[in-house]
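Give me structure tokens for this 83-residue protein.
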Amino acid sequence: MQTARPAAAMVAEVRRHCRRRGQRSSRTSGAPTSLSAARSSFSGFIPQITGAPLLGAHTDEVLANLGYDADTIAWLRAENVVA
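Here you go.
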């Protein structure tokens, strides 16, 4: 059974591992960083890396899939219940 470790110890371990492999680890300080390149082959496939969706980008679609109608979704948005 593993015991809980502080997050700082886990981050330090990842950084040590990356240095041994000649890679850089990312930091979560908000500063721009570079990530290590994937060491795998995609058989000619070039993945397209995009950013995460903006807050609320899929809210209407998710609410519609949950059964909310357009008027209710508009009301939720007008009342600032959803982004």
